[in-house]
Design goal:
Layout: E1 4-11, E2 15-20, E3 27-31, E4 44-50, E5 53-58, H1 66-80
Antiparallel strand pairs: 1-2, 1-4, 2-3, 4-5
């Protein structure tokens, strides 16, 4: 796997199938436990390696799912309290 921007295609119990959004359209499986945020199928995420750990970031502008936007909004509200 390499750092980049991916769309979460499918989620099963322990892994997510990711498809890169670049011209190569590579696919990878990524452990659900490695996401640093809550993820839903259809989300667009950025993934990069920081030292020896993978980091993830939800890309709100790229994600078209209303469910994902609602989850992100709720998370931000609870973090502010």
């Amino acid at each position: 796997m390499k750092s980049g921007i991916y769309k979460v295609e499918v989620i099963d119990k322990k892994t997510a199938l990711l498809k890169s959004l670049d011209e190569e359209s590579e696919q990878y499986t990524f452990p659900m436990s490695e996401f640093t945020h809550e993820v839903t199928a259809g989300d667009v995420v950025e993934i990069w390696l920081e030292g020896t750990k993978w980091r993830t970031k939800y890309l709100e502008e790229e994600t078209k799912s209303a469910k994902s936007h609602l989850k992100d909004f709720k998370k931000r509200i609870f973090e502010e309290d």
